[in-house]
Amino acid sequence: MDFESDILARIQQALEAAVREISPFRMGRVRAEYKSDNQLVTAADRAANRVLQEMLVRDNEGWLSEESPDDLARLKRKRVWTVDPLDGTREFVAGIPEWSISVALVEDGQPIAGGVCNPASNQTFLGSLATGLTCNGQPCHPTRKGTLQGALVLASRSEVERGEWNKFKHSRFEVKAVGSIAYKLALVAAGLADATWTLQPKNEWDIASGVALILAAGGFAQRLSSPGLVFNNRAPTVPNLMAGGPCLSRKLPSYLKRIARNPPSMKKPRFISLG
Predict the structure, then answer these.
(1) Are residues 124 and 198 in the same domain?
(2) pLDDT tens for each residue of 71-111
(3) What is the domain-level CATH number for residue 169?
(4) Contact present, 91 and 65 (Cβ < 8 Å)
(5) Quick one: 227 and 117 in the same domain?
(6) Strands 79-87 and 32-34, how do they pair?
(7) Under a CB-based contact definition with an 8 Å cutoff, are residues 88 and 118 in contact?
(8) Given this model, what pLDDT does residue 263 score?
(9) I need a labelling partner for 231 at 20 to 30 A (CA). Which of 24, 63, 147, 216 fits?
């Protein structure tokens, strides 16, 4: 088995094992607690994290996960698994089917392969730079839409609820509020939406798998300030992120920079909830 096929097989097997491990935990019926950073965590998060680490990491590979202490030895590793064992814990606890298990392999700072599984929607996205992207085993690609007019844009459910997307009230695109950012990126990579962006900082484990899928499918992902994204940093925080199909790679950054320079007056727009 060649390297890329081996990596994707490991990711798929690890995702399947994590799904089995958390199957006793029922969405919407799980007790949650707050971590020191005021983020929610459940026993399902910890169970998935344990299984993923056991199945994925081999000799000389690093590990970065939301639910593990950060071992900075990863900075000396060529390859690092970057994982969010349950992205969208808030939605999982609330019974909203917008959460996912996300896994990425980062090599020399670049996400070269990834997988995102949403058990609630029965969708598994797998991809690598060498093999392209599949959703439930079928090849897929991002949309070729070249303008935001009429586009479907996926927004952070939390950001929408806080009113941070009100600035886009005059836009001509449709907005859907979705929980897990890994899931949003996977949907864009597979052509089930046209674009997504975040207005708040994210951690590398939040976005690495989704960025891997976007790049595998031929789309683009970048920060607002620069086109490059480098992972496995000492401080694994990304200030903002945008992603879309290849035909939006110029217009979307230009649009968001213009909005950042000249924010419009605030008035609540019409939003559509997913599900």
Answers:
(1) no
(2) 999 999 999 999 999 999 999 999 999 999 999 999 999 99
(3) 3.40.190.80
(4) no
(5) no
(6) unpaired
(7) no
(8) 65
(9) 147
- The CA distance from 221 to 119, in Å, is 25
Q: How far is CA 9 from CA 64, 71, 121, 216, in A?
A: 20, 25, 21, 16
Domain-embedded: residue 161: yes
Do residues 20 and 134 both lie within one domain? yes
Overall domain count for the chain: 2
* Same-domain status, 226 and 120: no
Long-range contacts of 250-259 (CB under 8 A, 24+ apart): 251/146, 251/147, 251/148, 252/148, 252/195, 252/197, 253/222, 253/224, 253/227, 255/148, 256/197, 256/224, 257/224, 259/167, 259/168
The percentage of the chain sitting over the pLDDT mark of 90, rounded to a whole number, equals 86
**Residue with structure tokens 């814990």?**
89
Q: For residue 229, give its domain range.
A: 152-273
Tokens of 119: 């058990």
Higher pLDDT pick, 167 / 14: 14
